[in-house]
Amino acid sequence: MLISFLTMRYLVLSDIHANELALDKVFEDAARWGWDKLVFLGDALGYGQQPEAVVQKLLALKPYVALKGNHEALALALWRGKTPAELGPAMRATVLHAKELSASSRSFVQNWPEQHLDENWGAVHGALRRPWEYLISIPVARANLSYMQRPLYFFGHTHVASAFIHTPAASRPWRSLNFRQAHSQFELPAGSSIFLNPGSVGQPRDGLSLASYAIFDKNSGLIEVFRL
Length: 228
Prior knowledge:
Shape: globular
Number of domains: 1
Low-confidence stretches: none
Radius of gyration: 17 Å
Strand content: 15-25%
Helix content: 25-40%
Number of helices: 6
């Protein structure tokens, strides 16, 4: 991890889903570009086979932001003795993960909030209108626009590296981007509202079996999305 005193670069991750190998590859790749603080958008648990290792690696890095995803919400409910009436296949692994986590991992996860507000950006796992809503299209982004308290929000949950941009002065106020290349750059347009998803570390769902993450340079307003 490279610490810079001239700028602030955030490593933005989401949806690791207990995939330690993918997380290690992301950290190795991100070290080449340099970053200062970690922002994790939720869902460390679920699907994969290494929940404890993943949570402990996050804990060791002392994230600037670590948000609760829907899989952590299920784990918290289970720890409180509440068992949902029905669980789909996607959530059954999380039931096992909730039992496997150590005391230190549980304590860490229990403190994760659902949202974060920074000076000029915010972060959420799902969406602003509803916590676990899938922000997957322009109509859904439009429905969440009035809930924005900052011009830029990072989000996860959909496992798709993408962005939805609203520029009121443009002839077409809404547009969307998908980040499918090995290295994509996106500069924050002035006067716009942006929802940006760095994609999934552990389980991408855009047809590419490539882990995804982003680096946000707060000073320049540049966001870079990497696939590997």
